[in-house]
Amino acid sequence: MNPLRKLAGQTAIYGLSSIVGRLLNYLLVPLHTRVFLPEAYGVVTEMYSYVAFLMIVLTYGFETSFFRFASNQEDRPRIYATSLISLLVSSLGFFILCWVFVGPIADYIQYPEYPEYIVWFALILATDAATSIPFAKLRLENRPLKFAILKLVNIGVNVLINVFFLMLCPWLLENGSTSIQDAVRDIYDPNMGVGYVFIANLVASLVTFLLLIPDMWKMSWKFDSELWRRMMRYGFPLLIGGLAGITNEMFSRMSMKYQLPKSIAMHDLGVFGACYKVAILMTLFIQTFRFAAEPFFFTQAREKNAKKLYAEVMHWFVIACSLIYLGVLIFMNIVKEFIGEAYHEGLVVVPILLMAQLFLGVFFNLSIWFKLNDRTYIGAWLAIFGSVLTLILNYLWVPEFGYVGASWATFVVYLTMLIASYLLGQKFYPIEYDLRRVIGYPVSVALMVWLYTKYLPMEGAISWVLKCLILLAFVGAVWLLEVRKKTVISSPST
Predict the structure, then answer these.
(1) Alpha carbon distance 167, 371 (integer Å)
(2) Of 102-106, 301-305, 412-416, which gets the smallest average pLDDT?
(3) In the chain, what are the helix, strand and coil shares in percent, each to the nearest 5?
(4) Cα-only R_g, the chain
(5) pLDDT tens for residues 81-134?
(6) Do the beta carbons of residue 120 and residue 200 sit within 8 Å?
(7) For residues 280 and 286, what is the distance between their CA atoms, to the nearest angstrom?
(8) Would you say 399 and 259 are in contact if contact means Cβ atoms under 8 Å apart?
(9) Would you say the pTM of this structure is higher than 0.70?
């Protein structure tokens, strides 16, 4: 089977689960942004920024280490057991520490009245970290269907509990009979607010963990300390790089309430967090691509045409991202309805964040050079460089420009990291990327969006015709360029 078709097929299956799941999860965004004011949604945004940061710590590069070491099928059971035992022990230790020091932690992040948040999130993090290796094993064994089902169950449980507590229970309290109202009051507290968002996540994570127990129980349960040390040496730079990378992504959300005046900090954080979700289609595609691409890159590394294949993957990846960028922005009048009207003031940052996510996706594609060459320390240094730049730019721009400054900081950081990775990659693992098209497609769609928003009507029937024509023009241009390119390459020389 053609490797690109195989990658596309697996991306489609991973993507189907992620798309269906995330669309279900995405439905929570209009729910949350209509149930909660920006100040309350700011709490959700902040807490999940901590989760993203701590997940990197708790998995400490072992997911990628597992892919790297488990390419040999005979050694896979031993590698799986060592990896899983390591993460189970460290996750349990983390949960116990958070439980013991729950009070000081709650005080430190300025939520002394809600110590239960700390316990809930500690358990969420512990279970999610522990299940990362079983999920990685499913990806390595090319079992995307089971992977997809488990992910969908997780998201489905999360969505149902959110809907139950945030929509159904309040409605029953107002419209139900006396007996129903009494029953609802026994399980529902209106003052819990965003706490129900966290409870739903906790239950979903626990259900997923329980469903994976049979898969985990079948392993040998033999821990190889020498193998563990080698995996740690490989994975530690990835941990550092991951921490630096998540700093780039989440620092603004973790620090905004400390950088802005108290009167507006949580409001702006909530608006920024909601508008970040509008870029979900780009993030979703990149995430689903990564699920399939990471094991694919490693398995194709021994092939003679590997470099040519990597260049082709990059080429089509950029085309797909460019199409998403164009579609989201010209149909912004529809997309914006996914968040409450109170959050619409922040939509100006969406074009910036979308392009920043595209840069991040390109950076991931480029990162194959240091992973294949066992130069993960260079990837770590790139991420550290990015995180330092993130800290500087957020320090300079957020107090002055708020979440707009945070958005531009993200844009500049990812673009700078992309350029640095490309230049280093061409030195250590040169790949002939078609730069004219890799650069040309994003620049073209950005220009098309700018021209449309500046000079063409945004509302009315004519606007719909123009939007469809713009999309068709881009798709047609891609088709002509790529078909022409293929024809020229395949034509016999005269």
Answers:
(1) 46
(2) 301-305
(3) 85, 0, 15
(4) 23
(5) 888 899 999 999 999 999 999 999 999 888 888 899 999 999 999 999 999 989
(6) no
(7) 10
(8) yes
(9) yes
